[in-house]
């Protein structure tokens, strides 16, 4: 009887040890998965389910930074224009103020686009910087801008969850305007097919 009781205790202790080990392993695995998820979001990890679309996701810990996976077949531009009209969903008419020609994207691309509004500490005037990884960048300073007057975003592109976007439609990244003037700026990504169709006379 004593032998049976001792075996039962040993079995119980072995079961408890196994259970604790399983719980500990599960917790460590859950924590590792959380850390992996953070790394994936920080680096814009995504699974492309439709390669004919533009796939895009935000970099989690970097505002104004997005990973774009571009299908092959079209050239793209990163445009910036000034606007004085009421903002709407259409691209500004005419030619943009400044552009990055993303010619290599015609063969498809996996890249990071970054952009942001800043204030020059010397002149107290706003400027925008936009860059495409390995494709150059531009810095835009509005002409004759009064000192101390800010440009405030009125729209910022968001892709916290992965987006699948049509390749021939413009993607508006940022709209900003001043509350004290009628001036503003708009930054957007556009295929050459769409750009040529709207600028043809």
Structure description:
24% of the residues lie in helices and 35% in strands. Strands 7-6-5-2-1-9 form a six-stranded antiparallel sheet, with no helix packed on it. A five-stranded antiparallel sheet has the order 4-3-11-10-8. With 201 residues, it is α+β, with helices and mostly antiparallel strands. It has helices at residues 2-42, 192-199; strands at residues 54-58, 65-70, 76-83, 98-102, 109-119, 126-132, 136-140, 152-156, 163-165, 171-177, 184-191. The protein starts with a helix and ends with a helix. The protein contains two helices and eleven strands; from the N terminus they run αβββββββββββα. The model has no long low-confidence stretch (mean pLDDT 82). The longest helix is centred in the N-terminal third of the chain and has 41 residues, at 2-42. The protein has two domains: 1-42; 54-199, no CATH class.
Count of DSSP helices? 2
Instruction: From the alpha carbons, calculate the radius of gyration and give it in angstroms.
Output: 26 Å
Biggest β-sheet strands, sense, barrel: 6 strands, antiparallel
Output mean pLDDT.
Answer: 82
Sheet with most strands: strand arrangement? 7-6-5-2-1-9
